[in-house]
Amino acid sequence: MIARLQTRRILLPALILVIALVAWFLVARASSSSAEASFTTQDLKVDGTPEADGDTVTLDARLYLPERTPAPAVLLAHGFGGSKDSVAGDAEDLADRGYVVLTYSARGMGTSGGLIHLDSPDYEVKDGQRMLDQLAARPEVEQRDGDPVVGVVGASYGGALALMLAGTDDRVDAIVPAVTWNDLRQSLFPQFAGGGYPVRDEVDADAAGVFKKQWTATLLGSTLIGSGGSLSTTPSADQLKNLAAGDAEQAVCGRLAKDLCLGYVETATTGRPTAGMLKLLGESSPARVADRISADTLLIQGQGDSLFPLSEADANAQAIAGAGADVKLYWQTGGHDSGVDTEALRPVVASFLDSSLRNGSVDDVPGFRVDVASGTPAADTTAADSRLRTSDLAPGVSSRDASGGVSRNSTPVTRLELDGNAQFALAPPGATPSAITSLPGAGALLNALGSSSALSGSSLGLNALPGETATFETAPLSGALTVTGSSRVTVRVASSADDATLFASLLDVDEDGGTTLPSQLVSPVRVTGLADATKDVTIALPSVVRDIPAGHRLRVVLSTTDQAYAMPQEARLYRVELSGDGILTVPRPSLTVTDAGSTVPWGGVIGLAAGTLLLGLLLLVRRRRGAPFDESLADVPLSIENLGKAYKDGFRAVSDLSFRVERGQVLGLLGPNGAGKTTSLRMLMGLIMPSEGRIRIFGHEVRPGAPVLSRLGSFIEGPGFLPHLSGRDNLQLYWRSTGRTAEPHLDVALEIAGLGTDVERKVRTYSQGMRQRLAIAQAMLGLPDLLVLDEPTNGLDPPQIREMREVLGRYAATGRTVVVSSHLLAEVEQSCTHVVVMAAGRLVAQGRVDELVGDGASVAVTVDDVDKAVSVAAGVPGVAEVHTADGLLVVQADLEGRAELVRALVLAGVRVSRIAPQRGLEETFLALVGEEN
Known about the structure:
Blueprint: H1 2-33, E1 39-47, E2 58-66, E3 73-77, H2 88-96, E4 100-104, H3 124-136, E5 143-144, E6 147-148, E7 150-155, H4 157-168, E8 174-178, H5 184-188, H6 213-219, H7 237-244, H8 248-253, H9 258-270, H10 275-283, E9 296-302, H11 310-322, E10 327-332, H12 342-358, E11 368-373, E12 386-391, E13 398-400, E14 406-408, E15 413-419, E16 423-427, H13 443-450, E17 469-474, E18 481-495, E19 500-509, E20 515-516, E21 523-527, E22 535-548, E23 553-559, E24 572-578, E25 583-587, E26 592-595, H14 602-624, E27 638-646, E28 652-661, E29 666-670, H15 677-684, E30 692-697, E31 700-701, E32 712-716, H16 727-737, H17 746-753, H18 768-780, E33 786-790, H19 798-812, E34 817-821, H20 825-831, E35 834-839, E36 842-848, H21 849-854, E37 858-863, H22 866-873, E38 879-885, E39 888-893, H23 895-907, E40 912-917, H24 921-929
Parallel strand pairs: 3-4, 3-7, 7-8, 8-9, 9-10, 10-11, 29-34, 29-35, 32-33, 33-34
Antiparallel strand pairs: 1-2, 2-4, 5-6, 11-12, 12-26, 13-14, 15-17, 15-25, 16-24, 17-23, 18-22, 18-24, 19-20, 19-21, 19-23, 27-28, 27-30, 30-31, 35-36, 37-39, 37-40, 38-39
């Protein structure tokens, strides 16, 4: 009852808040749209650029004409998957302010024809120029020196078009690109180490960054079904038409151009880009033309944006300013993760256009504006102390001196010393479990959940495990500091593979040890050329805005996983240490507080309120799951009760699995391929969650990141080791990387593993058997009470298998417990005391190995008189199916029957020299699972 009342206290206020905010938001929208219009509209059909096969393209457009003309014009572009209707509110606002506005649905979207080429200079940019032709021919548009006075405004997809159009056509006088990209290669395959991608040169696909799979799928994947970028459950008419015409590839691609579509499909399949894909992305990038832009520019970028972070706007600003154009930069709160609120930006956009198109100068516009939510994550725009801060020039952006020369604006920095030894970070096989830092369109929700003490499982989000991270930290700050931009750190990286994939982040750590990941952002880093070598890498940490109070610390975290990105699927081990002077360089430009408040984007408020509601629901679910600790099982190493795992596609891997493992047992987990063994082990280790049932280790329920998992040691398919280090060094660095302060018992683990003096040799000289024993020793560090091994004898020859059997026996003899999954049945029979047999996801049999093999087995008895023995055996209770084979007496008998048979034979004068089972575990296994397969 008390738990129910507490849950209601969480849910009821959150539900009321959500309903009230939604109602207010809808009423405000309705009232704002009811004002009398001061403009007229005309719908147009404009010929677009023909497709490569000659197909004509018609673009659906709308012209907004104010009461007074001629007037400056604005070409207004929409975001990806939208249409001219998506920006109708922005167009009406500009028309009300006296601008001629032209909107249109981009090719492949809305009711416009053609295919989506992703802002290609050969298609979408040329379409934009045709729209400029429309404006230039209209008498309602103001002319200056024979050209129309026109600005281009757009967000995201439309923002990139504004930049590329301005870099291609000098008729554009002003642009306001918002939350958009500089280089699509960097946006979708980010690389925050080194100098990034060359502007116009082709890139070796092997050198590309890390695939941003979730956002790319959200954008491009949504065009494969439906039309106009809108996700649908049924194919579009164009897809059915292409399928009927025999063009299966274009049928799959929907409205996405085939070359772009096939490049995406291959990339999504392999996790790595093709050279052709990178070439297309590079051609669709403003980076190629930004240094040719002469138009007045206001770049608006969101701080809470894992798709196009602040660094993309910075790159655009530096290129445009370097060419001598006037560039203004505004870092607003929000972004793609929490929604782009263009309505809140309308006054900012209109003011800039007035200065540029009407007054002919943007000198009165601050060079740099940034919203700072003091002491809170930057994406939390509901904070009352959110302030607008300004400076004359954006950090790192060039300026012109009195003589007309261009110089780079040097941003002041604070240098903070980091502390931390060299550390190991494990990249788990299958890249699971993975840290969760960002989800497309759900940044506000993750901020709410990530800061919750009830749900935050780690410093990187909800489920990153300590062994997957390397961390370095400053001392407590002596004074307050506002981080404004991208901090830098240099590390040295080694890898068990030829390359390394890492995700770097900067965390705010308060006095109590609580952590906040500003805007849930990470910087992906891919380091190549690491075969038998190390490499120093300078990493640009996420560009963020955050007030850090005195007494807080800054923590640099490098994780091996992130759910939003494609990662190597094989197990890897990385060694990371600080390089050089171990300094964290933090940008701190001089800013002036302009006002005490800022416009609140209500979409973000509603998102956070919904996050609060969801948090309450999650807490309710947690309470209903039952007690996480069962005192009656406190001394039981492993208890599995009614365990099941079903996947979203309906496949059920495990059903109603129950068994216990006691102290000192060596349990063999057996089953054919597809029996559910690996799934069961992954649930046991907290890597995936069961659909039903419970797993308890010493009475504590297993969940991802559960503290009781520190009592479990494991390895799957053998972890990677750094080949140029000794076995001992590998083990010591691994233990430090786990963050545990307990004694590792390294010498004891090495003695049990039996490596001897070989532990001092470099791992590159090890045989496969020695690597396996080193892996066992690593799993034994800290002498875990429960050791879980998946195929520990893989790749070993018979003498090595015998040694591994002795290792497991010695470990179990210490009173600890071992669980082994293996396909070598004879080996399990010799090394395990107990066995669990699975088939088709279910338990088939369990028990002691000798009992399982002996129960119902055929027994061969060597006697001196076979005929007499047959007649004696036929009358012994518990003996059945008496016959002879190869001069032996063969009977079917249980354990008691065997003993009674020997007694009867001896009493009858028959000499018995040997009795042995006629079948072993392999025959028993086949008999048990035969009917299941």
